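Supplementary notes (optional reading)

For those who missed the lab, this is the record we used. Protein: Sll0787 family AIR synthase-like protein. Length: 332 residues.
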Amino acid sequence: MRRPIMPLNDLLATVKQHPGIQQKTAIQTAGRILAQGFACCDYPNGDDAAVIKTASGYELLATEGFMPQFVHTDPWFAGWCGLMVNISDIAAMGGSAVAVVNSIWGKRDDRSRQVLQGMVDASHVFRVPIVGGHTNLAGEQTQLAVSILGRANRILSSFTARAGQQLVVAIDLRGEYRQPFLNWNAATTAPPERLRGDLSLLPYIAENNLATAAKDISQAGILGTCVMLLESSGVGASIRLQDIPKPAAVEWQDWLCSFPSFGYILATDSVKLPALLKLFADRDISAAHIGNISHDKTFKVSHGGRTEIFWNIGSEVLTGMSARMNLNEKIC
């Protein structure tokens, strides 16, 4: 049975308390301490991947750790996601994946074997090799972390959205939830060549300057990921809820808290908007212009004739990885 449609203010209040958003506040603590570490480059921390400039372009480094409950409940898919979400992070930066390494702790049991098999299966589908890692099969709980190396010729960053630009959401809706979590899976049953082709859109977008900023939709969901991008760039936005691509049978409360296997938030100039949307449409990926980026450091959501503030970028801190924090840093 479908739940009654919530008033907009109640919907946004519920989504704001989603654990996927609230857990992002932990980045504040890590950021404050690690900011004291040895600086290696001119690119700020807080993007989907770290950026290291080289003579021929950019190297990208990213890592993901997985909730023990997820690994315990769906070990094969956790292993698959070990590659998929890292590859998505590299793509969000305008890059292509090169290789991954993993760390797995667990027992000598079927669950650990399923985690490893999921990684192997994803490695073949995405054509990204697993080149090393750390293994401990004398643990009490199955745990997984995966790191990735990527390369890019031009960078898409969370720090380069500008007031006056347009906000775009692109999501592959050709999937279904993989229960019991709000993970929208449009990957494991898709043709491998289609998955690889879809991911190749992001480097193409970067290299052809069709967007200046991008972020992979994370466990923070669509709105939480928007907040992270806006916070990093030091801007606000106004969006239209009804324009966000959504499966018809899924309720907004669930969809706004969902983690899609292919989902990106992008910032682009008005003149580039038609070409950007066409690029996704040509591959049957649902993409839409959902709103505008503004100097006003509030994130507003409109629906049904009402407008509510979801997040005050100027006064509420989510990750703390903001334009203010990185004022003296150089962004590509």
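If you only remember one thing from this example: DSSP finds eleven helices and 15 strands in the chain.
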